[in-house]
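Repro:
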Amino acid sequence: MEANKRVFVNTIAQYTKALINTILSLYTVRLILSALGQEDYGIFSLIAGVIALLGFVQNALVITTQRYLSYQYGKDNTNELQRIFSNSLVLHIAIALFLSLIMMIFKDYLCSSFLNIAESRREAAEIVYMMSVGMMLVTFITAPFKALYIARENIVFISFIEVLDGVLKFSLALTLLGLDIDKLITYSMMLTGIVIFEFITYLSVAICKFQECKPTKIKQDFDVDIIKRLAGFAGWTTYGMAAIILRTQGLAILLNKFFGTKMNAAYGIATQAYGAVSFVATSVLNAMNPQIMKAEGGNDRNRMLLLASKESKFVVIMMGILFIPLIFEMDNLLKAWLGNVPAYASFFTQCLLVSYLIDQTTYGLHSANQAIGNIKVYTLIMYTPKLLILPVCLLILIGGLGIEYVMGVYLMVELLVAITRLPYLKATAGLDIRFFMKEILLRQLVTIILIIGISSMFHQLSNSPLGFLYIIPADVLMSLPIAWFTALDSNERLQIKHILKLKK
């Protein structure tokens, strides 16, 4: 029960953070778009997207570090914990410096030749590029400390820092509106300052609180074999992250080449909105993944698979309660949010939200595969189709077909990958597909269909552009009891009641 309570508290902390940051992020984007204009906002989104092409490496390393740390926590192996963190930090720093050097070498080519940027804004674009590289460097070095907090299940602290990040960025947007200097350059510099501040915070607290972070220990524990082990796992995780980022940002580059920076503004808005609300999934993943890794580390395969399966269900239900009303009200939401909405912004956002919801139907099985460590074949099977979206989309655009066909391919591939996880985990981990279909997918489907029905009804009843102000809260309130009775089984409801101390 203690583990369940910890998961519940961490989930609530992350979910609360998600809601706060979603509101802050959405309004911040409106302010930034207003301050920068569509062209400069498109430039920032494009350059940030290029840098994000390397962010997959950092994400892969975080996942690797958190997996190995949580696994060793399950085994209660203190010495190995220390060694893993120390060598993970060394690996992060080395890769960060190498990638930063590579990106600076290609700066002139990317800003002057490869990207479609007006001559008058090229100098500003170069400064934004350098600031983005700096942010990437600092983020890389911050990553192992954040992974340590997750592995130790100190999710409340992480949630606090991430809410503070949202508040600081909102304050930055307000400040930007009142400035007369080059706002694009100023924005990138101030964002860099926020990233540095967060790094100092994570580092300071970790050094004071965790034995693994003592500087003397890090020097003593350097081990090439551990670095090789981490790098091997991270390498295949990197491939998976690369496929996702290349798909997302590669599509941005294709849109830039075929339609110019205004289409990038629409796509940038969609990815910002998608990123803001995707924290809903992250709230559950960050709370449950350490327990999944610990269960496998403690040689409890059945518990590990059960937790991974329930992770899929909880993520989809929590996302569905929020996502579906947003999808129905997207046009009015974007008008109220942005005022002047770029063409296709609503369509892109709806498609990205649907794609994410589809992917999460079985994403808990991805966590299960990470726990058992059999990553090579899984990554090739699950992520290669996502990477192959780009050449298919290129052919579609060359053939003169519309954006609708591009996003149709996007959604179909997500569905294919989600389904494929079931037989794969059956073969590698002994997943009970019948149980997953009945207790996870069926409950997901019934709940989502009912929520769609409610959202559609409310949407049809409202003719006001600001109707979403009461429609979305009403949708959420009506969806909660539906999810309680259709998504959760009797044991899950009982556990939640115990945690909330509603049962004697």
